Amino acid sequence: MKPAVKTYIRKKVEVFHINKPGNGTLDNSKGEHVMHEMTEKLHDFLLEHIDEMSQEWLDSREVEKDSIYTADASSETTEYLRVQNRYFTCKIVKVLIGESLDTLSDWAQEVATKRAQRGDSLYHSIHHFKKFRLIFFKRIESFFHLHSSSITYEELFSWNKIVNEAFDRMIELFTLYYGQVSEAQSQAQKMLISELSTPVISISDTVGVLPLIGQVDDYKNSDFAKKVMLQAKELNLSCLIIDLSGAPSIDTMMTNELFQVIKMLDLLGIDTTITGIRPEIALTAVQLGIDMSKLKTYGKLKDAVNKLLRE
Hints:
Layout: H1 3-19, H2 28-48, H3 50-59, H4 75-96, H5 104-118, H6 122-146, H7 153-195, E1 201-202, E2 207-211, H8 224-234, E3 239-243, H9 252-267, E4 271-275, H10 279-287, E5 296-298, H11 301-310
Parallel strand pairs: 2-3, 3-4, 4-5
Antiparallel strand pairs: 1-2
């Protein structure tokens, strides 16, 4: 055998011996140690850049109607969002070094509850979770470029998996708690409507107001028509104002029932005035064949009140 071939074989055997488990220094424990060390460095790097990430997210906001996330929010609201975002980011970063995903629950419940109670759109919250996820991964990308020679693909895949699972879990929890609060609010509103004994409010000896608030469909199973007529009669009203400005929507069935109430009030000698009527309600009434030509309508409740109280 030629000397060159012998030398090559000897070197290959030596390399195999060094890499064999239990021999030398190139074993799995060293690889795991290096991987853990880089994760720790990534953890520290992200914590150092929390304020920058929060500011980048705040700067990315746009003007959004009826949203806490709108770019023209007050300075107090902006700082409130900044504090929440920093806390959220800390939680996500700590998951990288082994903190349980369960620790995300308290934050998700607190923030989701406040958003739901404020009436903020769930869509807006989820949209901003997605925006911040991109910002978060941009910082991981920056870290990779700084230490590319020391980071393996295995580490990158691991970080990607951990961070995405954390964000997904946070969104799941946030949606769950938001839904629970919204459902509780809806049920409370339905109970209030059901228990409401005097839906008609008297504003003078002869004029009353019936404000319909929330989802008008909720009035279907609450003896709505019966209560309205009884109260209007007991109050000796000659005119009843039905205000729809607080009702975001009303379906065909409820529109029909509402106009049936108006007809019955007319039989009792009580004039009806509608305020805050929406175009879609008027369209539904026309489609149902309801004659609105004789019905008094005003855009605002105060205009109707001022007119009737002067008469």
